[in-house]
Specification:
Helix content: 55-70%
Number of helices: 11
Distance between the termini: 21 Å
Strand content: under 5%
Order of helices and strands: HHHHHHHHHHH
């Protein structure tokens, strides 16, 4: 049960699969194909989904959502090098995607590159700090604070992470998701995101 609650808290860490969040500047046909690919993912037709995501990318080379979605498929298959490549493509196209930097860090660490991983974690913290203080992101402050907590944990800044968890719990005493942040370890977090593969 605890893992289910934790996973619900981590949804914001994963890239948004739903195209309802897509920006109007993206090619509408690419968005439609990405949506079809997501439907294929839900039916566990992963090879078809990957083909469709590639088609969406071909139609709009600036469109980062398909890369994010491909990352999730590759993680589910344990193909971490491929997942890292797609995650890095997503942040190349959208450099302020803090969640992307966090995930790229975890994947880098999983592949044995702890130096790059730390750089990615620190970059994500910087992005979340900016978003937390930006009035344009005020509707997502709690989400960005939670994401920042995970990035702090991954960057081994445990005191800062625990202080932020304590403050969030004080501000939201009845929020079960936030309460579940207390006591989650760095290793448990990585295991959940990377499907328990160590």
């Amino acid at each position: 049960m605890r893992h289910i609650i934790i996973l619900s808290a981590l949804i914001s860490l994963f890239y948004a699969c739903s195209q309802k969040k897509a920006q109007p500047e993206f090619n509408l046909e690419a968005i439609a194909i990405n949506d079809k690919a997501i439907e294929a993912m839900h039916r566990f037709e992963l090879d078809s989904a990957l083909t469709l995501f590639d088609q969406a990318i071909s139609l709009d080379p600036n469109y980062y959502f398909p890369h994010s979605n491909k990352t999730a498929i590759f993680i589910s298959r344990g193909q971490f090098a491929e997942a890292l490549h797609e995650s890095e493509m997503a942040v190349k196209k959208k450099p302020d995607l803090g969640e992307g930097w966090t995930l790229a860090g975890m994947l880098s660490e999983r592949l044995g590159d702890s130096i790059t991983a730390m750089d990615y974690y620190l970059k994500s913290i910087e992005i979340f700090d900016q978003k937390i203080s930006d009035p344009d992101h005020s509707s997502r402050v709690t989400e960005n604070r939670i994401n920042r907590i995970f990035s702090l944990m991954l960057a081994r800044q445990d005191e800062k992470a625990q202080a932020e968890i304590k403050q969030l719990n004080e501000e939201n005493p009845n929020d079960m998701v936030i309460q579940q942040l207390t006591g989650i370890s760095r290793e448990e977090f990585i295991g959940i995101i990377l499907h328990g593969d160590d």
